[in-house]
Sequence to fold (301 residues):
Amino acid sequence: MFAKRAAVKVFIFLILFSVPVAASPLPLAPSNFTINRGWNLVSTDVLDMYMNGCSLSDFTVYSYNITSRAYELYVYGSNFVPWSVWVYSPKACVAQGSVWDWGDNDVRLKAGWNFLPTTNKMIGHPIEEFEGSCYLKKAYMYDRGWKNVQGGVILQADDLGQGIVVKVASDCDLDFSPLFDVVEPVISGGSPSGILSPDLTLVSLAVVTDEAALCRYWRAPSAPYSQMIPFTDTSGTYHRTTVSVSAGNKYSYYVKCSDKASPVNTNSKDYAISFSVPAPVPVLPKDTVAPLYVLSREGVF
Fold:
């Protein structure tokens, strides 16, 4: 009875939060998860685990109903599967089993509060690494009290199974693609090329990548990425920097890029940008034109 009364009180508090959407559970990761006496914010898959010291019938569970936009008692086994839920337990126990991993690169959030799970692929990373198009105004876990997980806080193995509540300014997509990315950036669109104007002293080098990346260049081929010079403007998919040139010379610059995956993928081979700046063409003095014409007309030339 105490659990039910406590649940009703927290329900009033929880109603301030907004709606989650369903996750795509794919690969599983083993976990032992401690359920504290009292309230717990947990990934929904914790309810599928083996309970050591308690059972599902001991719990009072609240989820957010996406249709009615209200919190309600969660019915285990229902078609609606939220990412995370509030669980009240009258005693401490341990859940033993596996937790979800993200099966999608992009996860849609609604403006306001959203409930997320902590999955295996998120461990070792700060939540900001997955912001995508979202602006995370707030992000918290709850473990006998609120814990702020913003500001570069690295998610730990002990966090597996915890729920995370985040507040976003507008509808947006978290981007988990760095967790699935094992492919080097594809570099294209290198410029300049060919023969340039002889009066140039500065030239803009530019390349395009098929994903957000950090690009660097070097004058000699096969240089390690760490030794190369960063482009001045780089971080998205268009990368630009300015170099000095002089007339009468040929130039080759070698580019490598590193994406924002974790771990990062860096180009193993150079992308070459080659061009030349020719020497100026000599200009004949004006007074030489007429004599040459006259001599030619008289048959001398």
